[in-house]
Design goal:
about 525 residues; alpha+beta; 6-stranded antiparallel β-sheet; 4-stranded antiparallel β-sheet; 13 helices; 16 strands; flat
């Protein structure tokens, strides 16, 4: 019997060992800290996740199972940076040393992008990568295509200040904390022309500069590398070599006299890209830079024309472009401001927040129309702001914060009381419906707008409950296995049945004997 008991216990322990091995194989090990994590390295890592086909799974951070790598949104960043950065989206934005409204997004590779419950990575050129959900996995798209609210410097990541870096096989020159774009510059006696997205298109020497802060092209499968010390023996705050072109010396702007042609709606090509990038740099345009002249660009051009006193047509004629590309072109004094008639991703973000707060009951769009204005006015009145329908960057910052004032709950209309001497009964009212009107009180208070579908937010959840549930299931199976082993050892179910029958017969005979 003792031998049988020992075997039963051994079977149960073996089942537990199997449980542990299965659990370990599925959860895996969190990626070790990346030494000297950099912005360009994080951007390259994010692109590599996209090209390598990472899939979304909550609670994972780069673990590979059966050849498939899994992660959630903050886990994708954590897989590169390691424990130097918080594991949650809220922890990363709260721990950031610098952050700002998405309308002020600077030209810096590897910035974090944040919205409630979700984070992603800015990879330059108006593009972003995020590990979104089970339905989408890793997404690579324009920043304006998603409802990002803020950008932030990811804790544990250092970013370039001044000098050359290599990202995705292209050279970029950082100056004053951002890569330069859409300009021609003389650096160390060589004249370089930088495209709208910061890449070098030409140089007077016919070659590209050398640097020691290279990041491999994402499609090669490398997650990127951190910067290393250059020939000067020192590194900047980003960990990348500043090179001989650091500081204000050795670098100067060179005037260019390009030829312009009129641009307007439906224009397409490289000239449109340059126009968009210039408007983006000056703070008049907030969306993805591409090569197509649409209503977004038309509104940005009109805003610039209004600022400099040109005829407000929204068409980028030669005179407008000469002014825009001149060294005296003014930056937008009202950068991030949203007003009626504007087409922008900022409008979609604002509408989504107004829906959450109860001022709109609708889907969202990129256009600021009459229904949006009614919702903004209602919010401004509740928040104690000037009710003019215009939201500046500071107002939007509050709107997207926890301090935003929610819409009041709609009051129900009281039931009509019929007079005792009334000659005829009044028409009964339905709660929430005004007399002789088909418009409900809710519809009167909360305007609607027809637009594109609201994308659901990706809110992270605690995975500990799932892990405990899985453990209990396997534990139950282990006990069941041990029970079956016991029954089989005793001769199976037939033996048990015979034993029970014999016991019953014995007690019956014993009872009969006592009765006699």
């Amino acid at each position: 019997m003792k031998k049988f008991f020992r075997k039963s216990v051994a079977a149960f322990v073996s089942a537990l060992v199997m449980l542990g091995s299965v659990f370990t194989a599925n959860v895996g090990t969190i990626t070790a800290d990346a030494a000297g994590a950099t912005g360009v390295g994080l951007a390259a890592h994010a692109l590599n996740c996209y090209y390598s086909g990472w899939q979304y799974k909550y609670g994972y951070a780069g673990q590979t199972i059966n050849g498939v790598t899994y992660s959630d949104c903050s886990g994708m960043i954590y897989a590169y940076v390691g424990s130097s950065t918080p594991r949650s989206s809220s922890g990363q934005i709260n721990g950031a040393s610098v952050s700002g409204s998405i309308s002020t997004l600077p030209r810096i590779h590897g910035l974090g992008l944040w919205m409630s419950g979700h984070v992603g990575v800015y990879v330059g050129g108006g593009m972003a990568v995020d590990c979104r959900s089970d339905a989408y996995d890793v997404v690579y798209e324009g920043v304006s295509e998603h409802r990002w609210v803020k950008w932030y410097k990811v804790p544990g990541v250092s970013y370039p200040t001044t000098g050359w870096v290599t990202f995705a096989g292209n050279k970029y020159y950082y100056e004053n904390g951002q890569y330069v774009a859409g300009v021609t510059k003389v650096i160390d006696g060589v004249t370089y022309t930088f495209a709208w997205d910061g890449r070098i298109t030409s140089s007077s020497s016919g070659s590209v500069p050398e640097d020691n802060a290279s990041v491999e092209t994402p499609s090669s499968g490398s997650a990127g590398s951190s910067g290393s010390t250059g020939s000067s023996g020192s590194t900047g705050s980003s960990g990348s070599t500043a090179g001989s072109g650091t500081g204000s010396t050795g670098s100067s702007s060179q005037s260019v006299a390009p030829t312009y042609t009129d641009l307007g709606l439906a224009s397409q090509g490289y000239a449109v890209k340059q126009l968009q990038q210039r408007l983006f740099d000056l703070g008049y345009y907030y969306d993805m830079v591409n090569d197509y002249y649409d209503a977004f660009i038309q509104d940005a051009v009109a805003a610039y024309q209004r600022a400099v006193g040109l005829e407000e047509t929204g068409e980028a004629d030669v005179a407008t472009q000469k002014s825009l590309f001149s060294s005296s072109a003014p930056a937008n004094a009202n950068k991030g401001q949203i007003y009626p008639g504007l087409h922008s991703g900022l409008v979609k973000q604002m509408q989504g927040r107004l829906v959450e707060l109860g001022y709109m009951n609708c889907e969202t769009s990129f256009f600021y129309g009459d229904a949006t204005k009614a919702a903004v006015l209602a919010y401004q009145e509740q928040a104690g702001l000037e009710a003019d329908g215009i939201m500046d960057a500071a107002d939007l910052e509050v709107l997207h914060s926890d301090a935003a004032v929610r819409a009041p709950e709609p009051e129900e209309e009281p039931e009509p009381v019929e007079s005792e001497d009334a000659s005829s009964k009044s028409v009964p009212e339905t709660k929430g419906v005004a007399v002789n009107s088909s418009v409900t009180v809710m519809e009167a208070i909360v305007p609607t707008v027809a637009a594109a579908e609201v994308e659901p937010q990706n809110v992270q959840q605690d995975a500990s409950g799932d892990v405990l549930f899985a453990f209990l299931i396997v534990l139950f199976c282990s006990g069941l296995t041990a029970g079956v082993f016991v029954i089989r050892k005793c001769g199976g179910f037939r033996y048990v049945a015979v034993t029970v029958a014999n016991k019953a017969k014995h007690f019956k005979e014993k009872g009969s004997h006592h009765a006699k």
